[in-house]
Amino acid sequence: MPTFDLCETTTSSYTSTATLASGGKPTTVVTNVVQGFRCIVDGGTVSDADVACLPALPSVGFSSYYSAASGLVMYGAICVSKNVVRNKSNKNLFTITCSYKTEPLSAEVCFGTPVDDIADIDPTVTAAISGKDRVIYTDYAGEQCMRHVGCKAPFDQPVVTQDPILTLTINQYESGISYSTMQERSFIVNSDTYQGNTAGRWRCQMISAVEQEVQLSGGPVTAVKAVYQVQKNDSFYTDPFGNTTITGWDQQVPLVSPKFLEPADLFGNPASIKTFADETSGESLVDYINVTGTKRPYTVGDPDDRPDYIQFQNYRRASFSFLQA
Questions:
Q1: How many domains does the chain have?
Q2: Cα gap 240→144, rounded to integer Å
Q3: Entry pTM
Q4: What is the mean pLDDT of each run of 10 residues along the chain (325 residues)?
Q5: pLDDT at residue 278, rounded to an integer
């Protein structure tokens, strides 16, 4: 049986490259590290693949950077390639080159010492902004923007603005995770305070979970690199009385309907469902109602000429305590 004498060489390199902000995308930094090894084989002939698959060598797509020679690590830099070259004059001498690469991050990362526990590895966070449409009834100049001035008919299409949605992408290491837990952590809204905001403002989705080898102070372990996307939603509505309610990720439903509830009267006529109709043409139309379904009075063109809303918790609420950032 052949024996393998493997050692790390000094042929290493480090580069860190930024892609500057452009086209609405933020500046990102990718760090690349190259690590070299030498292997001498004794007692037989082996192939390049036999050397490449030695357990002591990093595994592509699995191992994070660790140098036994320096004792330093770079969590987040994953082995992306491994090249084995047999020496032309000595068939039992091999040179192995392993390349590592980080994902695009918000800043450069450098070498560090191994931590004691997986939970001690700092997560990485990147931030981005997108927009979410919101119907407005008074524009930012204070003018009503839902009806034609002359005929008072509503616009065919509503006027919308956009509210900013803050998206954080969190990469963190965990000791392990099951498929069911991945599902449980997806499409949920915070049930308690998160990032200083009250319940209902943040939505979490798990993007991926990949097993990777990381070096701790006590030796290498297999961990899970989990990627989460959390989004902050400050959506709100202003009711006909000027009160503002922040709804976050709750579903808003405008209180408009082609029908309304006519309550029972003092003459013994029972409550009934009636249809809104134009006073001149008699054509049916859609108009405002109260939460009880009754007709809501208003003055066309005044500040109360807007629907009220009801809201529903259309996402399951849960604790975000599993997030490390």
A1: 2
A2: 13
A3: 0.87
A4: 92 90 82 96 91 96 95 95 95 96 90 96 92 93 91 91 96 96 98 97 97 96 97 94 94 96 89 87 88 94 93 97 97
A5: 79
Question: What stretch of H or E contains 183?
Answer: helix 179-184
182 and 95 together in one domain: no
Write out the residue range of the structural domain in which residue 222 sits: 124-235
Question: Would you mind telling me the total number of residues written for the chain in this entry?
Answer: 325
The whole-angstrom separation of Cα 230 and Cα 51 is 43
Q: In this structure, is residue 18 part of a structural domain?
A: yes
Same domain, 108 and 137: no
Residues 182 and 189: beta-carbon distance below 8 Å: no
From residue 112, how far is each of 54, 104, 109 by CA, in Å?
A: 26, 19, 9
- Is 131 inside any structural domain? yes
Is the residue at 141 inside a domain? yes
The strand pairing partners of 312, in sequence order, are 251
Q: What span, in angstroms and rounded, lies between the C-alpha atoms of 256 and 259?
A: 9
CB 85 within 8 A of CB 36: no
Residues 129 and 181 in one domain: yes
Does one domain contain both 142 and 99? Answer: no
Looking from the CA of 73 toward its CB, the CA atoms found within 13 Å total 17
* Domain C-terminal end among 200, 235, 270: 235
Q: Does 281 reside within a domain? A: no
Please say whether the beta carbons of 237 and 252 come within 8 A.
Answer: yes
Q: 72 with 167, same domain?
A: no
> Which among 322, 121, 126 is positioned nearest to 223, based on CA atoms?
121
Domain edge (last residue) among 235, 265, 294: 235
Strand 259-262 with 3-8, pairing: unpaired
The DSSP letter of residue 182 is H
Phi, psi of 119 (to 5 degrees): -65, -15
Q: What is the DSSP string of 65-104?
A: EEETTTTEEEEEEEEEEEEEEE-SS-TTEEEEEEEEEPPP
Largest CA distance in the chain: 111
H or E element in which residue 229 lies: strand 219-233
